[in-house]
Amino acid sequence: MSSTAPWWRSAVIYQVYIRSFADGNGDGVGDIAGIRSRLPYLKSLGVDAIWINPWYKSPMADHGYDVADFREIDPQFGTLAEAEELIEEAHRHGLRVIPDIVPNHTSDQHDWFRAALAAGEGSAERERYIFRPGRGPDGAEPPNDWRSVFGGPAWTRVPDGQWYLHLFAPEQPDLNWEHPEVRAEFEDILRFWFSRGVDGFRIDVAHGLVKHPELPDLPPPVDPDGPAPQERVAHPHWDRDEVHDIYRAWRRVADEFPGDRSFVAEASAETPDRLAAYVRRDGLHTTFNFDFAMASWCPKELRAVIDDSLTTLGRVGAPATWVFSNHDVVRHPSRFGRETTTKRVPRERYVPDGPLDLELGLRRARAAALLLLSLPGGAYIYQGEELGLPEVEDLPEEALQDPIWERSGHTDRGRDGCRVPIPWDGESAPFGFSPEGAAGEPWLPQPAYWKDHTVESQTGDDASMLELYRRALRLRRDHPALGDGSLIWRDTPEGVLAFDREPGFACLVNFSDEPYRLPRHEKVLLASRELDDGCLAPDAAVWLAL
Predict the structure, then answer these.
(1) Which of 123, 140, 208, 339 could in theory staple to 104 by disulfide, Cβ–Cβ 3.0 to 4.6 A?
(2) How far is it, in rounded angstroms, from Cα 403 to Cα 179?
């Protein structure tokens, strides 16, 4: 792509789940000092930027997504001064920094919410949140039938009888985005961090924020086997059209600062067209691609998602982004190693089901890496993905900390299995996650077999997942065909995906059970498995120079 194009159109962004990346002070929880100590690793890996999950002051009811102060760093992670030093040091390594921003809700320990509880019914302080009287003769029933994402009702009653809305945990009260003070406050928070050098923000629950003013009950579910609705029924609290006014204002704030500051939306929408609305030219810059992340290991399904994404986003001038794993989903080697590799229910998580063939999952994950990094647009790598880390599915119940575990009545183990601290070196826990002689155990236990997945054990091993990622990222950076742009599909048999990118590049992925003979090419740039007499093995991918 053009060297003058904005960096975010082609960027490979590495997700740092701060609690689990690297522990600098030895308390068993990752922190800013740990990130700083591993910046040389990230530079050598070949990524362009790091996205850091929330580092703000928080009681940690949802591991930082319950923010008590957006202008302070939680002491567990460090200080504001350390954050500023990290930003400067990352920039010296050529890495951009994108923190999370959580605008749908605050912590119940935020000064605003504490003031709202103290001020009482009808107060100006309560107008910043969504307080309502209950239903029924004594107001003992919630105001409507909305449900929390974490399970249970989305309303909690306070001692004076009113109820407040929380689409997530009760410790995460939803803000009232119709209130001008809320809008002004977040624009000021953006300026606070942009002025300290951050290069953009990842927006948590970007499809939330705005609610129907009358807070109606949820519409009846659509029968998947019945006729399609004649027209779209707007959801009362997800993906409402009014949310785009907020993001147009945020775009104007970003444009006040030099250096192509950018936003990426964590937005869930019913259709590609609804998703594209977030990244129109006067709105946000990019959005996550959940349809791609949740697609099955199936060439027909993946091609359909790729085509829909490129076409729909291209109409509004936005690049696509591609991702297979993050801190909210089962790691993809553990999805791809099963017969059922996805769960395509809107806003419902995939839960591992059936026996795991991890060897198969890792083969497919290697092929998936080459697919991910050769598609037009940007890409996201979740920490440890480059090490081939699987989901940790056997964490002891007493170790589980995700609020989903408690809110589901211990029926859903939640997301802790993809959040286990990553292994750096050594033969036993904490595998270099914490400094030698650290007093604290890692906040989630690491499995013993991770000794074979450490950075140390994979470095220099050409057959390792880490070295595959390093080579792929180096080629992606150097090859003029890769990054933003377009692709041309090749005609291939069922079970094989293949496309060309100009100038002179092709990617082939074999999903079938049979070897596939490579087309004419100048040379092999990179393969996820060893080639056999000019053939691509099943569950493998290859990059070719044409």
Answers:
(1) 208
(2) 29
CA atoms within 13 A on the CB side of 401: 15
CA angle 249, 18, 172 (to 5 degrees): 55
Helix, strand, or coil here: 79?
coil
Q: How far apart are CA 477 and CA 94, in angstroms?
A: 13
Q: Is 308 helix (H, G, I), strand (E, B) or coil?
A: helix
CB 379 within 8 A of CB 323: yes
- Strand, coil or helix: 23: coil
Cα–Cα–Cα angle for 443, 444, 448, nearest 5°? 125
CA distance 48 to 454: 22
At 397, which amino acid appears?
A: E
Q: Within its chain, how far is the Cα of 179 from the centroid? A: 28
**Residue 27: φ, ψ to 5°:** -95, 0
Tokens of 162: 């009113």
Average pLDDT rounded to a whole number, residues 504-524: 97
Contact status, residue 309 vs residue 289, Cβ threshold 8 Å: yes
- Taking the alpha carbons at both ends of the chain, their separation in whole angstroms is 18
Nearest to 253, CA basis, from 189, 318, 196, 179: 189
pLDDT tens track for 90-148: 999 999 999 999 999 999 999 999 999 999 999 999 999 999 999 999 999 999 999 99
Closest CA to 375 of 317, 325, 324: 324
β-bridge mates for residue 488, sequence order: 500
| CA-based nearest residue to 297, from 444, 464, 513 | 513
CA pair distance 198, 260, nearest whole angstrom: 11
pLDDT tens for residues 308-353?
Answer: 999 999 999 999 999 999 999 999 999 999 986 555 444 456 666 7
CA distances from 544 to 359, 421, 507, 514, 530 (A): 25, 36, 6, 20, 14
Q: In 376-464, where does DSSP find H-type helix? A: 403-407, 455-458
pLDDT in tens, 207-243: 999 999 999 999 988 766 666 666 778 999 999 999 9
User: Can you list the alpha helix ranges (DSSP code H) found in 216-331?
Assistant: 243-254, 272-276, 290-293, 299-315
Annotated active-site residue 121? The verdict is: no
Ramachandran category for residue 54: left, alpha or beta (phi over 0 → left; psi -120 to 50 → alpha)? beta
- Catalytic, out of 204, 386, 391, 416: 204
Using DSSP, state whether 237 is helix, strand or coil: coil
Q: 10-57, pLDDT tens digit by residue?
A: 999 999 999 999 999 999 999 999 999 999 999 999 999 999 999 999
Is 49 within 8 Å of 14 (Cβ atoms)? yes
Give the Cα separation of 87 and 173 in Å (integer). 30
Out of 111, 256, 425, 461, which one is annotated catalytic?
256
Q: Could you write out the DSSP letters of every residue in 335-363?
A: HHTSS-----STT------S---HHHHHH
What's the CA gap between 303 and 288, in Å, rounded? 17
CB 110 within 8 A of CB 129: no
Phi first, then psi: what are they for 428, rounded to 5°?
-150, 165
Residue 82: active-site member: no
